[in-house]
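B., you asked whether I could sanity-check this one before it goes into the benchmark set. Here's the sequence:
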Amino acid sequence: MSISNVPFITLNRFEEGFKEKFLGGVEELFNKTQFVGGPVVAELEDKLKEKTGAKYVVGCANGTDAIQLALRACDIERGDKVLLPDMTFWATFESVVNVGADPVTVDVNRDTLHWDLATFKQAVEEFKPKAALMVHLYGWASPETMAIRKYADENNVMLIEDGAQCFGTKVDGESILGSAKIATTSFYPAKVLGASGDAGAVFTQNEELAHKVRVLGNHGRTTHYTHGLVGWNSRIGAYESLFLSLSLDHIESRLDSRIKAVNYYKEHLSGLPLEVQLSEDNVKENGYCAVAMIDPGSRPALIESLKSANIGHGTIYPGAMSLQEGADKYLVGKIDNGNADYISKAILNLPCFAYITEEELEYVVKHVRNYFK
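And here's what the prediction gave me:
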């Protein structure tokens, strides 16, 4: 059968028997009325610890809550300055605002698309922040992640890592989520490890931080009807935990298929004005996104051409944080070298999802190559 369309992402490709196993598990949870908490949640957290090497993992309701729980657990509060990249998803920015802190956006490197140590140092020296939110986009990370961690620690800046897109990503051979002082992830369905609805988690090596995250996400409870903190309800559900736990059994093959797709684009689209980007050599990416860059003036026409061929695309992300309308009254400072703005206008994401077929990849590549003839 010939291919005539390729979606940007699809969520309906699972391993043989996965659906049946999940639905069977749902029936068991239903019969036992295990809806919130219980052994399936504990099993997921244990499997996440094993996969990442994190000492403690706490599941929560979604990735945005995970960031806010981490910020609160680190005692970030009203009036504290928090650095965050100018290139990220809005949830990073709004999480800082939602805990009452003051966001400072810091530009990214145009080559790595992430923070670099020199600009991070400049921001710390200029703004004297209490914390920083380092974001690992596209399934990659900054090649200078370890150096940034070291510098933050030496300068008493609490570094919280937003790993919503980096499950399975490694830097210098170490799992990002497992080796961070405290990190978060999202299990939104489109992620490489996605739930069937919203869910998230916090990862840490610190027992005290883990305990505080768990308490905050359960109404600040110290016992069932005593409350040592003002928290909120951010518990992960049993059904989502079941779905994620079953997905973890297949995560390596899912990541492998994504990485193969990214490498296929890199090999077969070489020499074109649309340049496929890969992570630096010391970063092992997870294939979350197929990231390409093109001259901003040429991007709109290429996008229209992709649409005409029924090929999905993304622009992750189409705008810098500091230029968002909602940022105006909260932003207390920024370092803007123009890189985030440029990247937002130049980036183009090609179809990439678990078990994308070679025929689908060939269809995308053939159309793009023909476009540039």
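One thing to flag: The longest helix spans residues 251-268. Otherwise nothing jumped out at me.
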